[in-house]
Write a structure and sequence with these properties.
Layout: H1 3-14, E1 16-23, H2 29-39, H3 64-69, E2 77-82, E3 85-90, H4 99-106, E4 111-117, H5 124-135, E5 140-145, H6 154-165, E6 168-171, E7 173-176, E8 184-187, E9 192-195, H7 206-221, H8 227-231, E10 235-240, H9 249-259, E11 266-267, E12 272-273, E13 281-289, E14 298-306, E15 308-310, E16 314-317, E17 322-325, E18 330-333, E19 336-339, E20 342-344, E21 348-352, E22 362-364, E23 375-377, E24 381-387, H10 393-405, E25 410-414, E26 421-424, H11 428-441, E27 445-449, E28 454-459, H12 462-471, E29 476-478, E30 484-488, H13 491-500, E31 505-507, E32 509-511
Parallel strand pairs: 1-3, 1-4, 4-5, 5-10, 6-10
Antiparallel strand pairs: 2-3, 7-8, 8-9, 11-12, 13-14, 13-22, 14-21, 15-20, 16-17, 16-22, 18-19, 23-32, 24-26, 24-27, 25-26, 25-29, 28-30, 28-31, 29-30
The chain binds guanosine-5',3'-tetraphosphate.
Residues 23, 25-31, 55-56, 145-146, 148-149, 242-244 line the site of guanosine-5',3'-tetraphosphate.
Length: 517
């Protein structure tokens, strides 16, 4: 590669900002997404993300089940350019039943914006999503939303974040006024006051006086912004604002431009891959089938981890050793898509395929490496699939495999040959499975209960596993890639089994791409 090309690559990668927004439902994620896109110039009118009159439904929601229930099930991508940076905003499903999908999406981002309702503070789902981010030390930027309404005291909110998440905070903006008199923010980074629809304000205005006094206190009590601490996920800059009134949103985006972060180094089983390495590597973190009802298609979403992807490039799928040419990589903007001629580390591209690509796959220009970090969680609900029309058995088998590869459910084939068992984290996943089997494959199914309520992947010395499997035949199943799973009825039974089989290891998380040996 020439030096100019090297510089070009560096520049492109450095200006990427790939992030997700995490929040408890109703904290204002959809509204903030709209406003970010608007400030970023990606959409003309705020409100077009959410179709008129249909609440809590962004343009990225496309499935009937989502429309019917007004929830966001599917995660999508949005890309826009703002002040010289390319922003990739990865949307995560709103519903907690899809936490596994959310987790996978979070493996593909370099930072997260945590939205908190100023009246409610840290809520249950915020905490859970934050914990997921912490597992990977993802840098977090906090946006305290709805300051235009009755809110908790800013100091109390900062304390709550620090105490309940064990995360240091530093104010990035400070509110001017409260609730109905909330008129803007003071930006600590730019040392600038931004007021909304206010032309004149005297220095004596008590909102300004209060802001100045509080700011003094905050500066004394809290640490200043520290880049290394932020990058390590230990310190969060906190922005106060109102997504609805578009106060504090520009400040948030400007900060992401200033300290991003740009694409991070990622771990493989054998070495760390730096984003600026010239050779292209990518990680498939999501599969989505039948996005376009007019064309039956299957898109693998890959995060470019290093280098540059060009259309027509030959890629190696390291799991199988096979190579293929990417003829039509695509960029997505909610429902719209277009061909990606080139994409850089940090970008997410959709690669159409017919089932060859799986979640967790690593794609390279030839090197044999495998990225780690995309997990499967042990399901919490297990159901046997009941098929009324026996003629459709073959079709059902194929459909279940396809949908399991997409991550809609986990699929287990009992070793005793009985009908397949599906495992999910949340029951809504079962509804999605049922609806999609019906609408996309024309197969009607029902669910029967099973005696099982827990599933654990098993590893250990070969002879111990064989003996255990033989002794528990009716409770052993193979997962999608043939790894053995032990199914049991309760945590009490699980504990007993563990005590009785000290040489067998039981796992509730499996890293995809890694075959447990
Ligand atoms: P979510 O995606 O996190 O679930 O939240 P969403 O943006 O849908 O916002 C939830 C509700 O909070 C919406 O009201 C929205 O208008 C409101 N909201 C969001 N940001 C702000 C803000 O900064 N200030 C105030 N006062 N309200 C805000 P809704 O009544 O449920 O829906 P709608 O009728 O307004 O669409």
């Amino acid at each position: 590669m020439t030096q100019t090309a090297d510089l070009e690559l560096d520049k492109e990668i450095t200006r990427r900002r790939t992030f997700a927004i995490i929040s408890h439902p109703d904290a204002g994620k959809t509204t903030l997404t709209e406003r970010i896109l608007r400030v970023g110039g990606a959409i003309q009118l705020a409100g077009s993300v959410r179709a008129k009159g249909e609440r809590r439904r962004t343009r990225s929601d496309w499935m009937t089940i989502e429309r019917d229930r007004g929830i966001s099930v599917v995660s999508s991508m949005m890309t826009f350019e703002y002040r010289g940076c390319v922003f990739n905003l990865l949307d995560t499903p709103g519903h907690e039943d899809f936490s596994e999908d959310t987790y996978r999406t979070l493996t593909a981002v370099d930072s997260a914006v945590m939205v908190i309702d100023a009246a409610k503070g840290i809520e249950d789902r915020t905490r859970k999503l934050f914990e997921i981010c912490r597992l990977r030390d993802i840098p977090i930027v906090t946006f305290i939303n709805k300051m235009d309404r009755e809110a908790q005291d800013p100091f109390a909110l900062l304390d709550e974040i620090a105490d309940s998440l064990a995360l240091d905070t530093t104010p990035a903006t400070w509110p001017v006024g409260r609730a109905s008199t909330f008129i803007g923010v003071y930006n600590l980074f730019q040392e600038m006051l931004t007021l909304n629809n206010v032309t004149t304000l005297t220095k004596e205005d008590n909102r300004l006086v209060q802001m100045e006094e509080e700011l003094e206190l905050a500066k004394m009590a809290l640490p200043p912004f520290d880049r290394a601490s932020f990058d390590a996920g230990h310190l969060t800059p906190v922005f106060f604002g109102s997504a609805m009134k578009e106060i504090g949103v520009t400040e948030l985006l400007d900060a992401l431009v200033a300290f991003g972060p740009s694409p991070r180094a990622l771990e493989t089983e054998t070495r760390i891959v730096q984003a600026h390495e010239p050779a292209m590597t990518a990680l498939v973190f999501k599969i989505q089938a039948n996005m376009d009802p007019h064309h039956r298609d299957r898109i693998a979403f890959a995060r470019i981890c290093s280098g540059k992807l060009s259309r027509g490039m030959k890629l190696k799928q390291t799991r199988t050793g096979k190579t293929f040419t990417v003829h039509t990589p695509q960029f997505f903007f909610a429902q719209d898509r277009h061909l990606a001629e080139e994409a850089f580390a940090g970008d997410v591209v959709g690669i159409p395929n017919h089932g060859t690509l799986r979640i967790g796959d690593t794609l390279t220009e030839g090197e044999d490496i495998c990225f780690v970090g995309v997990p499967h969680f042990a399901p919490e609900i297990l159901r046997r699939v009941r098929l009324d029309d026996a003629m459709k058995a073959k079709k059902l088998r194929q459909a279940l495999v396809e949908l399991a590869e997409e991550g809609i459910v986990q699929l287990f084939h009992p070793q005793d040959g009985s009908s397949p068992i599906v495992g999910v984290v949340g029951s809504l996943q079962l509804d999605v499975l049922q609806v999609r089997l019906q609408t996309e494959y024309g197969v009607t199914i029902g669910f029967d209960s099973t005696p099982f309520s827990l599933a654990r992947w098993i590893t250990g010395p070969r002879e111990k596993i064989e003996a255990f499997t033989l002794a528990n035949r009716s409770a052993i199943a193979d997962d999608l890639v043939g790894d053995p799973v032990f199914l049991t009825t309760s945590s009490f039974m699980m504990k007993r089994t563990e005590e009785q089989n000290p040489d067998v290891h039981f796992h509730d998380i499996k890293q995809i791409g890694t075959t447990i040996v």
